[in-house]
């Protein structure tokens, strides 16, 4: 099968890879590129474990072809911490035990960061609706929602 | 495994040419939130995937000089929500489009994909029908227009002819005193498939309904335009008798399936209830417009 050549930007770095035309971006990230931080839960858009941003827009990487990444900007969980410095959301998730098994966590973090970039002061209802496409089988969601709310408050404080 | 090819043309002519030449082996890719799921489930193995999102007209949202809107078939729900004016003029259409899936799905899912996927429960379709939206379609024989309600042919089937691509939705200018709304009934509160969906668009002048359209989803093999319901509303002051007549028309239009989400009796009853609730919201919005 003829492979496609894709030139894209991932976490700020130019990247090139080959993919099959019908291959999902999730597959290319985890397989070809070895970026296994992005998780696969369902492969059908239901669980959000594969969440990434595409030109700043939150999407499921399982519902997107790798070929569609050509010329676009992708952000994955691997780009969230700056070296050893965790993103405030990552730090807060740890402090508040907003994760147990961790499979939903990269998707939750990417989705939550995207929310706070758009809306630094979300209500609890807004957080819950924004994260409705991110399923978690462990935490019962409450700790996650509270961690996002607290991070938002801290980040607003820091920005002042 | 058969080979799949991927094409992302910049022009509609190129896309139509490739789509027609592939004669049934090709699939159009808009947001992919239906297509990729179907491919993964093994229901489809297209020989050619034609990504239409690089074609400018497909992702444009244009407010026309006369006040109408033209929405590209591949515009995502998230992009439509960010438009500064669209949701003010067509709040019902926007809320219907924005009900499709999660935030992530909204980043990709398009009204064109929702219509062409031809699910009887597609959420944006009843609202588009109520809005009186007309689609432009381009194929090997040129362009044509059709009302949204003429597009679905049955579950998973449309009346587009081979090689035709849906280009855009045209929504008419709004007279003063107009409002629209969409409501669906789902067993959960989020992320579910409609058991019934109702779209209503009204124009009210001096307290009397002068124009109305009603779209009804998930209760028949295709989403329906219910002209009898609209007729019951037009000329009325939305009194109880008119509302009950419109609700009865919606119930009469139902030819639903019986499944775990809703029995025939339940879906039929809910169609009437939802009609009344949706009218109330559309009327309230019309009063403010
Ligand atoms: C988790 C999840 C939740 C969902 N929830 C809902 C929901 O609540 N309500 C709902 O209605 N739907 C829902 N859907 C289904 C889906 O998201 C919608 O139908 C969506 O609008 C499809 O749009 P798309 O752009 O992704 O279509 P695509 O998947 O790109 O296309 C869908 C079909 O239409 C064809 N097509 C697309 N564009 C064109 C065009 N311009 N011309 C001709 N053919 C075309 C494609 O070939 C394909 O067969 C959900 C899906 C997922 C994965
Ligand atoms: S793996 Fe993509 S949404 Fe579940
Ligand atoms: S922590 Fe296990 S699924 Fe969320």
Automatic annotation (TrEMBL), chain A:
| Signal peptide stretch | none
- Please verify whether the record's keywords include Iron-sulfur: yes
Which PROSITE patterns does the annotation name?
2FE2S_FER_1, 2FE2S_FER_2
Q: Quick check: keyword Metal-binding in the entry? A: yes
2Fe-2S ferredoxin-type domain: which residues? 4-80
Domain of life of the native organism = Bacteria
Pfam families attached here?
Fer2, Fer2_2
Keywords recorded for this protein, A-Z: 2Fe-2S, Iron, Iron-sulfur, Metal-binding, Oxidoreductase
Q: Which InterPro entries match?
A: 2Fe-2S-bd (IPR002888), 2Fe-2S-bd_dom_sf (IPR036884), 2Fe-2S_ferredoxin-like_sf (IPR036010), 2Fe-2S_ferredoxin-type (IPR001041), 2Fe2S_fd_BS (IPR006058), Beta-grasp_dom_sf (IPR012675), Diverse_Oxidoreductases (IPR051452)
In terms of SUPFAM superfamilies, this protein maps to: 2Fe-2S ferredoxin-like (SSF54292), CO dehydrogenase ISP C-domain like (SSF47741)
The record, for Gene3D superfamilies, names: 3.10.20.30, [2Fe-2S]-binding domain (1.10.150.120)
**PANTHER family referenced in this protein's UniProt entry, alphabetically:** OXIDOREDUCTASE WITH IRON-SULFUR SUBUNIT
Q: What is the recorded name of this protein? A: (2Fe-2S)-binding protein
Q: Which species does this protein come from?
A: Plastoroseomonas hellenica
UniProtKB/TrEMBL annotation, chain B:
Matching entries from PROSITE patterns are given as: FAD_PCMH
- Please verify whether the record's keywords include Flavoprotein: yes
Is Oxidoreductase among this UniProt entry's keywords?
yes
- Pfam families reported in the protein's UniProt record: CO_deh_flav_C, FAD_binding_5
Q: Which intervals hold domain FAD-binding PCMH-type?
A: 1-176
InterPro entries from the UniProt entry:
CO_DH_flav_C, CO_DH_flav_C_dom_sf, Diverse_Substr_Oxidored, FAD-bd_PCMH, FAD-bd_PCMH-like_sf, FAD-bd_PCMH_sub1, FAD-bd_PCMH_sub2, Mopterin_DH_FAD-bd
Q: Which UniProt keywords apply?
A: FAD, Flavoprotein, Oxidoreductase
Show the SMART domains listed in the entry. Answer: CO_deh_flav_C
Record's PANTHER family?
Answer: XANTHINE DEHYDROGENASE SUBUNIT C-RELATED (PTHR42659)
What is this protein's name?
Xanthine dehydrogenase family protein subunit M
What is the organism of origin for this protein?
Plastoroseomonas hellenica
Ranked from the top, the taxonomy reads:
Bacteria, Pseudomonadati, Pseudomonadota, Alphaproteobacteria, Acetobacterales
